[in-house]
Amino acid sequence: MWARSFGNQGTVNLAEDMGEIYDGYVAINSAPVVIRDTLVVGHQTIDGQRAFGPPGVIKAYDVRTGALKWAEDAADPDTATPKKGPNAYKRGSPDVWTSFTGDDKLGLVYLPIGNSSGDYWSGTRSPAENKYSVSLTALNIDTGLPAWTFQTAHKDVWDYDPGSQPTLVDYPDKNGGKTPAIIMPTKQGEIYVLDRRTGKSLFGVEERPVPGGGVEPDQRSPTQPYSLFHHLSKPDLTPQDMWGLTPVDQLVCRIQFQQASYKGQYTPPEADRHSIEYPGYNGGSDWGSVAVDPTRGIIIANYNDMPNYNILVPRAKADAMGWKPRDEIPYNPHDTGHAEGAGDPQIGVPYAVNVNAGWRLPYTGMLCKEPPYGGIRAIDLRDGRTLRDRPLGTARRNGPFGLPTGLPINIGTPNNGGSVVTSSGLIFVAAATDDLIRAIDMKTGKEVWSTELPAGGQANPMIYTQNGRECLVIVAAGHHFMETPVGDYVLAYALPEQK
Question: Could you give the CA distance from residue 257 to residue 276 in angstroms, rounded to a whole number?
Fold first, then answer.
C-alpha cells in the first residue's frame, strides 16, 4: 500500500519542469539518500554535448507521499521553492552525478556539485554557478537551502567536477572528543577533511598561484585550493616522464610534450595547440572514492596517475568536421562509445573540445606517460601521512593495439571503483583494468588473494556478515572508458570461517 501511495502509483517524474531533456541526456546513476523524512535525488546530465542542455536541479521528495518538498538549482541557490514550467530552471546548470551522503542528526545533505554543461568554457556561467560549481555543498534537509559550501576548483575548465563520494567520520580531536567531519577526495588528488557542521577545514587549505592564459585569460582564477592534509597527485611532468614501448614511441611522446602548452597543474586549455592536463579528469580520486577504517585510523585511496592531452576546437571548424550533439546523430547499435570529451561539440559556446584521455598514441593505443597509471595508498587518518603506496593492477589485459599481454606484472593500471575494508584487516578492490578482484593485507600492503572476474569490476565491493561469517559482493559489468569486458554479473564470495 505504501508504494502505491508514493507519488503517482509509486513513482515520481524527476524530469518534470526540466524543459526539453533530449533522449539519453538525463540519467540517475547514483543512489538517492534519505535524511529524516526526505528523499533527495540527483542525476547526471551528459557532458560535452549542449552547454545549455537539461538543468542539474536537485529534487527532494517526502519519503512517504512522494510530494515534492524542494528543488535546489546551483544556478539560483537562494530559493528552493519548486518552480513550474519548461524554463523553470537554468539550462545547463550544475548537476550532482556522483554519490552523495547526509547526516540525519545535523539535518544536512552533502552534495558534490559538478560543473555547468560546458565543461571547458566558463564565460557563460552565472556568479552563482561560479560559486557553487565544483564544490561540496551542504543543504538544509528541511529547506533545501545551502548551509555552507566548499569549492574544490575555481572557475573550472578541466572537467574537475567531483566524482568521489564524501565520507562521514567522527574525527578524534586533541581533547579526547570527536569532531563530526567529512572527507572529500577530488580528481585533482586533494583530500580535504572538513568539519561537516561548518565546512571549515580541520587541517587548513592553501590558495596557491596557478598558471593563467588560455582562451579566456580574464576568466582564470589566479589561485586554486590545495589541502594541507594530503594529496594524491604527483610532481609535475617532465620530458623524461614520456614513455613508449619502442624508442620511436618515446620520441613521438616527447615531441608532443614539447609542442603542447604545459605550465604545471591547472594549465588552461588552448585552441591553437594542445594543452596537458595532469592529473586528468579521471583523477586523482574519481568514481568509488576512498574507504575508511575508523578502528585502525586508516584511509585507503586507490587513484589514477594519468594526464589528458586536450585541445579546444573553434565552433566553425567543429561544424565543418560535422561534430554534432548525440541527439542529432542517428542511433548506431555498433557504436561502442568513446571517452568523455573526445570530439565533444559543446553546442552553445565558442569552442568544441577534443580530449585525448590518458594521452594515448593513435596507433598503438599506449599511454605517453611512463607507468604506473594507478595506485592504492594507505593514509594515516590522524595526520595525513602516507603509510604505504603501491601500483594497482597488472598488465595481463593490457597491451599495444588493444592486445592483452597476459603478463602478471604489477604495472599499475587506470582504475575506476573504490575499495572496502573489513574488520579483520583486509582491503578488497577490483577497479583496475586487469579484471581481477583482489584482497590486500592492510598491515603489510601485500596481496593475499585474487580471482578473475567475468567482466570489468569498475564498482565498489560490499561486505556483509551472515551467521558470523564475512561475505564479499561485487558487480562486474565492465566500463567503456576502462575498455574492460561488458557483462551483467553479481558475484559473492565467502571469507574463511573464523575459528
Answer: 8
Specify the pTM: 0.95
Catalytic site includes residue 344: no
CB neighbours of residue 208 within 10 Å: 12
**C-alpha grid cell for residue 412?**
599499475
Quick one: which of 333, 398, 347, 353 has its CA closest to 52?
Answer: 347
Handedness of CA 158, 184, 192, 295 (dihedral sign): negative
Query: Measuring CA to CA, which residue among 206, 398, 134, 182 is closest to residue 292?
Result: 182
Chain-wide mean pLDDT for the chain?
Answer: 94
Q: What is the 3-state secondary structure (H, E, C) of 308-356?
A: EEEEEEEHHHHHHCCCCCHHHCCCCCCCCCCCCCCCECCECCCEEEEEE
Angle, CA of 397, 402 and 403, to the nearest 5°: 60
The catalytic residue among 73, 159, 286, 344 is: 159
CB 435 within 8 A of CB 456: yes
Contacts of 466 (CB under 8 A, 6+ apart): none
Q: Dump pLDDT digits (tens) for 388-437.
A: 999 999 988 877 767 677 667 889 999 999 999 998 899 999 999 999 99
